[in-house]
Write a structure and sequence with these properties.
Layout lengths: L13 E5 L4 H14 L27 E6 L5 H10 L5 H6 L1 H8 L2 E3 L16 H4 L6 H17 L6 E5 L16 H9 L6 H11 L4 E3 L9 H10 L2 E3 L7 H14 L3 E11 L1 H7 L2 H19 L6 E8 L6 E11 L5 E11 H21 L4 E2 L18 H16 L1
Helix pairs in contact: 1-2, 1-13, 6-8, 7-9, 8-9, 10-12
The protein binds nicotinamide-adenine-dinucleotide (NAD).
The site of nicotinamide-adenine-dinucleotide has 32 residues, from helix 1, strand 2, helix 11 and helix 13.
């Protein structure tokens, strides 16, 4: 791997995390701090390798971090829990404790709706829950005030918002939200709008790029795409592709390109942590299951024969670790039936954190270049990419590299 030095003149970037005290956010923050102090290297960062070398991307070690959450449990405690689970050493957390506390002090209270409170909502603060009484316009104004305050702390005012909050319940999206004018009328009328979408609207309307790393609705609404294009702001999403789905979108093309007919792809995921606890609730699980299944079905094409299953089970003792077991049955020449089985055991947060850092660098770069709307060239990072129909990981990666080479010219 070719590691690269950042261009000296790259402006600093502020990273505003929604769900700033969760597991992925804590790994992002610890990672940025440890890159800054030189305690870790850039393994896992896509943007640390060629062909991104020629791009003037922001230095991740210099990210200024803040954000919002609906819990007050300090990030340092979450980091220590993750260290005890074996993701990294607790000595690393101790060494960065003061810097973690300084980030924690910049985390304000978030907003969410009562239906989005997971049934195992340990620690969700009543103070934040009570914000359910606020009108959507008031919430947007409050988020924009927090963004404006944070922006002042970053020389040059360049910031990116990343949604890393708990997965919301999947809801039907009203057809009229395709149009910005109709969506804004719904805002004025006080309609119930998912917090992820209010955050996206607040950021983009203020000219700030937005990344949705979760399966929640966020900017996946026609009205927000229209707003992003009108304000010349880029956004990217949704649902980070870190583990089982990444493997699916690598293996799926192999079956497709060898003309082997997949008959069954049964995936069983077991995970603990806050994400596992949230996804135990069927209403929260629905969006995640749909994204995981959609990627595979798009790749293999719908056939009468194809049977797929995505199971997600909460196993508290796993903590932040996740095990996925996949069973694939396929038919070859002469009708011969064969199987492939794999087991993937990983820390989701450790896989997700460098991708979040990559996304901030690439989305900020796109913003500086004047790109607007959903960034389809970032499809490789997502289970359900916006702005692209490509689900094959290698083609997605090719798209990203072609973009980098063209942008470097
Ligand atoms: N871990 C991965 O590899 C991965 C991959 C893809 C997507 N994701 C998504 O990333 C998100 C975060 O995952 P995690 O493992 O860090 O979960 P987590 O439960 O540890 O953290 C979520 C955090 O969001 C906060 N939160 C909830 N609702 C909020 C709101 N409305 N506003 C502000 N903060 C809010 C919670 O208090 C919590 O601190 C989840 O939606 C997950 O599905 C994770």
């Amino acid at each position: 791997m070719t590691e690269i030095a950042d261009a000296a003149a790259t402006p600093p970037v502020g990273l505003f995390l929604i769900g700033a005290r969760g597991s992925v956010s804590t790994c992002v923050t610890l990672g940025v701090l440890a890159l800054r102090s030189g305690r870790i290297d850039r393994t896992g960062l896509v943007t640390a390798r060629a062909p991104f070398a020629a791009l003037p991307l922001a230095d991740p070690g210099a990210f200024h971090i803040g954000g919002l959450d609906v819990r007050t449990r300090p990030m340092r405690e979450t980091a220590l829990d993750l260290g005890r689970l074996g993701l990294f050493s607790t000595e690393l957390v101790t060494a960065e404790a003061a810097a973690l506390d300084a980030v924690d002090a910049r985390v304000g209270a978030g907003h969410f709706d009562q239906p989005d409170v997971p049934s195992r909502a340990d620690g969700f603060e009543r103070e934040s829950v009570s914000k359910a009484g606020m009108a959507p316009r008031e919430r947007i104004a409050a988020v924009q005030a927090a963004l404006a305050k944070f922006r002042k702390e970053v020389a040059g005012g360049r910031i990116v918002v990343v949604n890393l909050a708990s997965t919301e319940v999947a809801r039907p999206v009203p057809d009229e939200w395709k149009s910005l004018a109709a969506f804004e009328r719904a805002l004025d009328a006080g309609a119930t709008i998912p917090a992820s979408t209010l955050y996206a609207y607040a950021a983009i309307a203020a000219g700030i790029p937005y990344v949705n790393f979760t399966p929640s609705l966020g900017a996946k609404v026609g009205a927000i795409e229209e707003l992003a294009r009108a304000r010349r702001v880029p956004h990217a999403g949704c649902d980070g592709k870190t583990g089982e789905t990444l493997v699916k979108t690598v293996l799926g093309p192999m079956f497709r390109d060898r003309n082997l007919r997949v008959l069954a792809w049964e995936g069983f995921n077991m995970l603990g942590g806050g994400d596992g606890a949230t996804l135990e609730d069927p209403a929260h699980k629905a969006g995640k299951v749909a994204n995981k299944d959609e990627a595979l079905r798009k790749l293999l094409g719908e056939t009468q024969e194809l049977h797929t299953h995505v199971g997600i089970e909460y196993v508290p003792s796993l903590g932040d670790w996740k095990t996925a077991m996949d069973f694939i049955q396929f038919r070859g020449f002469l009708g011969t039936r064969m199987t492939l089985q794999f087991t993937w055991s990983a820390s989701d947060s450790a896989l997700a954190a460098p991708l979040v850092i990559d996304l901030v660098r690439l989305v900020d770069f796109a913003h500086r270049r004047g790109e607007a709307g959903a960034l389809g060239h970032l499809a490789a990072f997502f289970k359900s990419p916006l702005g692209s129909n490509e689900t094959d990981f290698y083609r997605q990666n090719q798209l990203l590299e072609e973009y980098a080479r063209a942008a470097a010219r």
